[in-house]
Here is the input.
Amino acid sequence: MVFLAVVIMLLHRQPHQPLVRLAGVAIASLISLSMVQPSSAQPLCDTGEAYEPAATTQRTVDLPQFGLTIQIPSNYRTWQRQDGTVEILHPQTYDFVRCVAAGGLGGRGYYAESIREVARDRQRSLYQSALDLGGAGSTVEPYTSEWFSGYLVQSDIGYHVAFVFARPERPNDFLVVAATCDCQIEVEAVTDLIAQMAWRSQPRF
Here is the structure.
């Protein structure tokens, strides 16, 4: 449409009008029109105000890449990130993460529980690896459950709690189960998660 308007201007120019000047006007018109073209706005990602409670029933999620199974509320979802980390998400948080991944605007953090595998430096013990993971100011304490033994790591500001433990069949790696948020997290968030896990080789669910 813009091109047609330019052609009409050129065809109907008066003899005394310089072609160069008229072409300049046409180009200026094109630039002005291009500047006012509407741009597609990015959607605003939100979880909504109505909070859906965790289901009282549970389902078992098989995680063969980690050698684990885990029980989660039946309405919760899992999300695998590009680095292989698997997040366990509340259904509304899951929708929020999908929205952000599709290019939407987030503007805030979110609570997530996650499981990931980390390559182990064989020159360092599991305890030293836990210290490295936590960073300066973190606390590291041994923790043993019925099925797992490792170290609990808590950040100094309380926004991150993790459990670091060895994977028997893969001695060059270790696993990290964590809870993260832009809010305070209690250690029980991770110990309760550990209680819902089992090795695939020793099923109990």
The longest helix spans residues 19-35. The first strand starts at residue 58 and ends at 63. The beta strands are 58-63, 68-73, 77-80, 86-89, 112-119, 139-144, 149-154, 160-166, 173-180, 197-199. The chain has two domains: 2-35, 58-199.
